[in-house]
Amino acid sequence: MSPALAIAEAVNRGTSARAAVERALAACRAERWNCIVRTCEAEALAAAEAVDRRVRAGERLPLAGVPIAVKDNLCITGLPATCCSRMLAGYIAPYTATAIARLQDAGAVVVAQTNMDEFAFGSSNETSCYGPVRNPHDPTRIPGGSSGGSAAAVAAGLVPIAIGSDTGGSIRQPAGLCGCFGLKPTYGLVSRYGLIAFGSSLDQVGPLAADPADAEAALLAMAGPDPLDATSVAWELSAPAASLAGLRLGVVPAHREGLQPAVRAALEACCERARAAGAELVEVELPHERYAVAVYYIIGTGEAASNLARMDGVRFGHRAEADDLAALYAESRGQGFGAEAKRRIMLGTFVLSTGYYEAYYRKAMQVRRLIRDDFRAAFARCAAILGPVSPTTAFRFGEKLADPLQMYLSDIFTIAANLAGIPALSFPCGRDPDGLPIGLQLSGPPGSDRQLLAWSRALAISAGVPLAPCDAAA
Q1: In contact, 157 and 469? CB cutoff 8 Å
Q2: Could you confirm whether 85 is annotated as catalytic?
Q3: Which end of the chain offers a freer environment for a tag, N or C, measured as fewer CB atoms within 10 Å?
Q4: What integer best gives the mean pLDDT of the chain?
Q5: pTM of this prediction?
Q6: Residue 396 pairs with which residues in a beta bridge?
Q7: pLDDT, average across residues 417-438
């Protein structure tokens, strides 16, 4: 049985939820990867005792007593929600995100909040005001971003499930680089209410776990329409088939280009194992995917500039001392935001400005539609698409920080799924010669989230990947 479901089964049978939570709290306090920005001691112990009372009263909870860690951009009543930015230092959330409230209703207990790139702007977790997260497989390497803290917490065995957000790959890329499973759900499947927005038409809340059965349990707890999120949708999530036999699996020839040799070898080996298990591999084309990075950094920065306009020192955010209102805005935002946040706000303001909106933002939205149409055509020929998550395994700190374009290209294979609104996940599928995890990606049509998790489990097991945290947890 998977780690989280084993805890839930034990608690539902009468084992103390408090004991499981205390173990997780101790692990989070002792962690050495800077993946935890704060533990929630009093709140977690009170919640564990409440779970024990509910179980004693006869309730059976699907995630009873399961300790979870939550990315620092999801609101939880009474706890800080800083997005790892100086801009929100001291901000206390007045309400709880719907996704987190539903996990708590299912019996999960929030034990910690995880480090992230500032406002989710990054692919390496190096832009956090709390400092970078270290990869548990090699502390000289980045964990990926922006949900790097959540991925590292799962990989190190601190918690069986962590929650992140994915705007252009921010769950899948760190999951791939840290060797765990990470799902970006179908857009609208999980409510965004209570997620501090980066790009509202792109953001999704999703789970990371060492075992896809745990990720599925978290997804089922979080999923469903929410009157507080007008974009939420009642997708039907039917029970998945576990076998690869008869699966028509799409591969995109262009996805083999520009890969680190070990990543390409892992992709090709996975294709061969899938074929040996009875899957049929078919080549499909995504002709407009080559524009995805450019489209994303127009739409994403435009939405980010709009969403972060409220962080002005008056309505929200760090407030600087100044003599007049214009100076207050300038000083507050200048002091509160880091370099990458400023870069994206300026880019977004430019593409939305008069005289440039039609040339950039409107055109990007038109190409976005073409990308979505490409996926629809591809899924008419196959049930899922297999490809890489990242062109390389985890790189060293500072290697790409000074070159934003190279950093942005780290998400070249993950961005299109956000633009199309389809589910996509990362699953571990081997190691490179340095022992670093290699992640591969499965994407499918809207609503295929559970099926992707089932197929990813089969593909990971066929590669001999252990469904457990890395040795660093010891």
Answers
A1: yes
A2: no
A3: C
A4: 96
A5: 0.96
A6: 141
A7: 97
Q: Per residue in 345-397, pLDDT tens?
A: 999 999 999 889 999 999 999 999 999 999 999 999 999 999 999 999 999 99
Which domains are assigned to the chain?
Answer: 3-222 (3.90.1300.10)
Q: Is 268 helix (H, G, I), strand (E, B) or coil?
A: helix
Q: How far apart are CA 125 and CA 131, in angstroms?
A: 8
Tokens (6 digits) for 55: 């179980």
Q: Which amino acid, residue 231? A: T
What's the rounded Cα separation, in Å, for the pair 371 and 327? 42
Asked if 146 is an active-site residue, the reply is yes
User: Torsion-angle region of residue 465: left (phi > 0), alpha (psi -120 to 50) or beta?
Assistant: beta
Name which of 92, 114, 110, 90 is nearest 101 in CA terms: 110
Sheet harboring 161-166: ordered strands across?
36-39, 109-114, 67-71, 161-166, 204-209, 181-184, 424-431, 437-443, 384-388, 248-251, 280-283
Residues 410/391, Cβ–Cβ less than 8 Å: yes
Give exposure, 52-86, as e/b (b: 16+ Cβ within 10 Å).
Answer: bebbeeeeebbbbbbbbbbbbbbbbeebbbbbbbb
Q: Which two tokens stand for residue 293?
A: 């990075």
- Pairing type for strands 204-209 and 181-184 reads antiparallel
Closest CA to 56 of 20, 22, 19, 14: 14
Among 2, 123, 128, 146, the active-site one is 146
Active site residue 170: yes
The percentage of the chain sitting over the pLDDT mark of 90, rounded to a whole number, equals 92
The candidate with the shortest Cα–Cα distance to 212, out of 31, 23, 467, is 467
Residue among 123, 147, 170, 390 flagged as catalytic: 170
Closest CA to 217 of 64, 53, 432: 64
What separation in angstroms does the CA of 363 have from each of 256, 289, 321, 357?
28, 15, 41, 8
What is the Cα–Cα distance from 462 to 440, expressed in whole angstroms? 13
Q: What is the largest CA-CA distance in the chain?
A: 71
pLDDT of residue 465: 87
In DSSP terms, which residues pair with 250 in a beta bridge? Answer: 282, 385
DSSP strand E in 181-283: where? Answer: 181-184, 204-209, 248-251, 280-283
| Residue 283: how many other CB atoms lie within 10 Å | 11
Long-range contacts of 252-256 (CB under 8 A, 24+ apart): 252/283, 252/284, 252/285, 252/286, 252/289, 252/385, 252/387, 253/283, 253/285, 254/286, 254/289, 254/290, 255/387, 255/388, 255/413
Using alpha carbons, list the distances in angstroms from residue 8 to 3, 21, 302, 433. 9, 12, 42, 37
